[in-house]
Amino acid sequence: xxxxxxxxxxxxxxxxxxxxxxxxxxxxxxxxxxxxxxxxxxxxxxxxxxxxxxxxxxxxxxxxxxxxxxxxxxxxxxxxxxxxxxxxxxxxxxxxxxxxxxxxxxxxxxxxxxxxxxxxxxxxxxxxxxxxxxxxxxxxxxxxxxxxxxxxxxxxxxxxxxxxxxxxxxxxxxxxxxxxxxxxxxxxxxxxxxxxxxxxxxxxxxxxxxxxxxxxxxxxxxxxxxxxxxxxxxxxxxxxxxxxxxxxxxxxxxxxxxxxxxxxxxxxxxxxxxxxxxxxxxxxxxxxxxxxxxxxxxxxxxxxxxxxxxxxxxxxxxxxxxxxxxxxxxxxxxxxxxxxxxxxxxxxxxxxxxxxxxxxxxxxxxxxxxxxxxxxxxxxxxxxxxxxxxxxxxxxxxxxxxxxxxxxxxxxxxxxxxx
Length: 419
Hints:
alpha+beta; eight-stranded antiparallel beta sheet; 51% helix
């Protein structure tokens, strides 16, 4: 059995090594994406004007009027104090081609006082320029930047999800391989099972480069085993949420499906134009929230044009960042008729609902606040290190096997010649 596990660990590890090195190193950085992005791009985020800010819907109108090819898809109702307003946009359909317009941006920064558009950028653009660096790394983390093909833009997400599933299985295999082998005979003064397992948790000093590499791979993997399981499982659940995770959860436990679970999205280039205005949407949402005795103001809103779903989220300023990664109170409306089609309240619902809500907070470490984010950053480096040391172990053993095979061939040839 052990021989089979060794082979599985070798090939599973080689398959996922490249994915995990990328995911680990990018994950270590994007734990701080918001802070790093603002530090790198103060000209985009920091407002240079003083005075009474314009109504947010007026800023939205200015962005849409400046470029008829776009439709606002997400914005906060109030910008952060001292910050520009951020308005995200989707491309409309070009009537001449029947496909969405090709845009060089999807994120506009607007001075809240003057209404001037002070910057634009394309989220996830393949670029190391400071304006795009953090979003490039973020998208690389879970999509590998694989392009759209046959109208589908989720190939990278699926591939990373598949790698996460292999990683999850391989983590258990790796743990099993650290366990001490059963002895055929047990001497009276022999070491206990735990004593024989103890060296696997330790890093030998002064034992040479190869043994150091091996010990780092084995010992670090043992010490962070629980965290590796969490990261592997949540990587799978987030990337393959609609395809595998949610359907399986619904089979084994009671879930409360929302509009994104019950609706089938349209093709990428077949968006559904909303038939409800933002003011009408906000009136409906505020009335519904008052009926539920929600005290929080409307914090932000979005429209998903492939699902034809409006979302309105309620929170006090800053709570979206300080919620431990959990979603905030939300209402969902049909984009064509304005009917209420779902809601979400953090920490409420069935056990499966709460478990679903916990996937991103666990993966990002935000559920534990600042210490959790620090741990996730360290784990990102650890995941990359485990992958690199694993490849080194394989390469060293492969070289040894090849050299041994050559020696046998030479010895065989020499013996044949002698006879």
